[in-house]
């Protein structure tokens, strides 16, 4: 520490501080910097007075302007709801077929349905509705219960094997492990795999035996040619699209002890309007009939 003095090189007074022979000059701050600094202090004071600023025990100071971000948000929500009220009322009063026939209404319903899908459906069907093992792909044209708008609406509204809804879709594949011998199950699996070219090097004798067993046990639901039946939710066995695997071993496991997926009934949870919006969106993905 040293006393203040005039620096001989710059002619500026020092602050009296010195470190290792280096003395600190007492240069004033630039005037423009000081003006901005004082302006920010004035601005901060004015803000505290005009806007909510100080938190209290159960509320906060309201400020002279009475501004509230929550009130602003509520007003924006109210304006948005008012803007779409006519569309929602129209969707509520019209059938899905009528909604699809109206370009503006269809566009609005598809957008609303996409939002509802992201909240309620992506967990099973995927963000792109591409499905996953055990969950159907909604982009293709393969439908267990039909892909017409009314079919999709029925499935979404009442679900599949959802016991809490009396109108739910119901199909039940028997556990053939209790009816057929292991060798017979293998033969049926090989025949079913052959319908979509997945039989590999299975012998023609086994496939023929499996075909006979299929005709006796499976054709009543899946059809003589394995094309399926949408009325009972029996899948098409010839299209190479499988829920639980396409290998003969996977097919045999499903024949022996079938898995049965469950889809909730969204009608009660979301309401009729949201179900229509979801129907329009799912149908718009490209796989609707």
From TrEMBL:
The chain crosses the membrane at residues 32-54. Its cofactor is heme c. One of its GO terms (cellular component) is plasma membrane. Keywords: Cell inner membrane, Cell membrane, Electron transport, Heme, Hydrogen ion transport, Ion transport, Iron, Membrane, Metal-binding, Oxidoreductase, Repeat, Respiratory chain, Transmembrane, Transmembrane helix, Transport. Pfam families: Cytochrom_C, Cytochrome_CBB3, FixP_N. GO terms for biological process: oxidative phosphorylation; proton transmembrane transport. Heme c 1 binds at residues 121, 124-125, 263. Heme c 2 binds at residues 173, 218, 221-222. Binds 2 heme C groups per subunit. One of its GO terms (molecular function) is electron transfer activity. Pathway: Energy metabolism; oxidative phosphorylation. InterPro entries: CcoP_N (IPR032858), CcoP_N_sf (IPR038414), Cyt_c-like_dom (IPR009056), Cyt_c-like_dom_sf (IPR036909), Cyt_C_IC (IPR008168), Cyt_c_oxidase_cbb3_su3 (IPR004678), Cytochrome_c_Oxidase_Subunit (IPR050597). Belongs to the CcoP / FixP family. C-type cytochrome. Part of the cbb3-type cytochrome c oxidase complex. FixP subunit is required for transferring electrons from donor cytochrome c via its heme groups to FixO subunit. From there, electrons are shuttled to the catalytic binuclear center of FixN subunit where oxygen reduction takes place. The complex also functions as a proton pump. This is Cbb3-type cytochrome c oxidase subunit. The gene is ccoP1.
